[in-house]
Structures are given as structure tokens and as C-alpha cells.
Amino acid sequence: MDQYPTLTKIAEDIYQLVVRYPFGMFEMNSYLFRGEKGFTIVDTGSEAKESIDLWKKTLASGITVEKLVLTHSHPDHCGLARWFQENHHVPVYISSLGYQELQKKRDNNRVNWLHNFLKSHDCPELSQNVVNSEAAAYEFEPDGVFEDQQTIKLGNDTYETIWTPGHSYDHFCLYNHNDQVMLTGDHVLFGLSPIVALWTENDENPIKDNFSSLEKLKAYPTKLALPGHGELIYNLNDRIDEMIKSHNYRLQQILNFVGSEEKTAWQVCQDIYGSLSNTKFFAPLMATIARLIFLEKSGELHSELRSGKLYYSPGI
């Protein structure tokens, strides 16, 4: 009988737990690294009951947890940090940038910023339930923080911390030079491109950041990449090239839709994704806005604020 029935063995002392939850991607890959002092867990899933039930079953199989490391501060990755601290006395580590993002997301003013931001882009009002649903994920204090290009132990092995802003400003990948293993979090996924968007008022040009971060990873020879969602990746650089091509396709698509006719972000979003329900529009819309901002900062589009709404037209 398998010693850890809920886990899939990926490599020597590396295990995967697919954590389910009822929103967004609906499941996330958590990775467990076995060491002499117990397992290091990377990312948790959300605070949903089905996620907690799976972790209870996993821990009941005899696992000792040394610590929890978080790649970034999105709720499907950090949602159970507080639960691990309070119920299992597990220390939690996140980047100093991630800790700053947590503090921003706890700020009530962020809701006002988000409301005004969406309004200026001609968007539907965001449901208060959507805004409130993430709040609990940010209510924890880390036991320690790490910086860019430091080393961190996952189990018995040493990994380099690599800052990869784009999907989120505080996103980090983790790389083992000896075994050429890369944890890519939500920066690189198999088969789909992660959403790159503005999540706080401090985000300036996440698409530009994302392009730079993707190119940065090419310098790390990688035999196995462990993504935050979906299948494992065995040809990381090829996958990065595919993602860059996909981003460029979307950017050209937006330029074609704007053409000679000025449009708001909401109109462009509907051109790309079709009709979206009140609960499904947020992520595609925020990604569309990020692309429009990239194109404007690149000089290919121009925006003008009229009657409280931003209209985009071809650059001058």
C-alpha cells in the first residue's frame, strides 16, 4: 500500500498534491519536498472546505511538515497559510514583496480603487461577493520572508529564489541547480497562459514585466518544471516561446479590434471573449486592460479620458 495515498511521487523526495476548490482554476498543484526535518510544502490551495478536507486526509497519513513556502499572494496559493499556522503550528515563508502585497490587499481602500478603476474602463460593477470572497486568504502574518536571488531549503535540497513579476508583482519561481528542477508557480503553465493583469494600483505595466520574466527563466537549464496548475513541463524553454507567441497574438488582436475606431477596455474585452456573465468577466477584463496599457506605453495605442471613461485609439 502506498505510504502517502493522496500524493503522487514526481521525483526522488518530491511529491504532488492536486488541491481542489470551487472557483477560478478549480484545482492547484501543491508540492511537498521530503527532508530530514519533515516536508516543506509549496503553496496550499484555497481556504475552501474541500481543500481543507484533502489536507486533513494527507496529514493524517503520517506526514510531518517542517514549513510552508508561498510562490505568490494569490488566494488559491496562500489561502490556507493561516490554517497551517493555527492548526498545525507550521511556519510560513513568503517573499518580502509578497508580504507587501498581502498588506495592500487587506487595505479597504483597495476596494474603492478597484471600483473606480473598473468604472473608468466602462466595466460592469464588480459583485461585493467577489471582492469579499478573497479577504480571508490574506489574514496571516508570515514567520519569515525571502528576497530575490537568495537560497531556500525545500526538504534537503537548496533552491534559488527568482523574482518573476507578471502574473503577479510578487511572483517567485524556485530553482534547484543540481537537479535542474524549476517550480514555476503561475508564471509558466502547460497548455494555457496565466492571466497577467493589474491587481493593485501600484501595478504599472505587468505585460512588460511578464515578457522580461519569461526571458529571464531561459537562462536556467531545466529538466523538469513544476507548475502551479495543470501538467508537468519537460521542455520549459519551448513552452516559454509558445507563451510569448500567444501574448503577441493577443496584442495584435487588440490592435486589429481597435483599428481606426476608438473603444473602451470593456468593448475590446467583449470583442475578444464574447458575452461574459457578471461572475466570469473579471479576469479576462483585467487581462485586457493590462494589454491595452502595454500597447499604450509602447506607443501603439493612445487613450483619452472623456466623461470619466477611457477610450483607446491607434497611437499618434
Task: Offer a concise description of the structure.
Residues 27-229 form the Metallo-beta-lactamase domain. This protein is an alpha/beta fold.
Brief descriptors of the model:
seven-stranded mixed sheet, 316 residues, five-stranded mixed sheet, Metallo-beta-lactamase, Chain A, alpha/beta
Walk me through what this model shows.
The strands form three sheets. Strands 1-2-3-4-5-6-7 form a seven-stranded mixed beta sheet. Strands 8-9-10-11-12 form a five-stranded mixed beta sheet, with no helix packed on it. The mean pLDDT is 91. It has helices spanning 49-59, 75-78, 81-88, 96-106, 109-120, 128-133, 206-217, 236-258, 265-273, 282-297; strands spanning 8-11, 14-20, 27-35, 38-42, 65-69, 92-95, 144-146, 151-154, 157-163, 172-176, 181-185, 224-227, 301-306, 309-314. The radius of gyration is 20 Å and the shape is globular. By secondary structure, it is an alpha/beta fold. 35% of the residues lie in helices and 23% in strands. The protein has ten helices and 14 strands. A hairpin with a 2-residue loop joins strand 13 (301-306) and strand 14 (309-314).
The helix-and-strand class reads alpha/beta
Distance between the termini: 68 Å
Order of helices and strands: EEEEHEHHEHHHEEEEEHEHHHEE
Count the domains.
1
Count of helical regions: 10
Q: Report the CATH architecture.
A: 4-Layer Sandwich
Share in helix: 25-40%
Question: Total strand count, please?
Answer: 14
Determine the CATH superfamily: Ribonuclease Z/Hydroxyacylglutathione hydrolase-like
Q: Give the biggest beta sheet.
A: 7 strands, mixed
Strand content: 15-25%
Low-confidence stretches: none
| Strand arrangement across the biggest beta sheet | 1-2-3-4-5-6-7
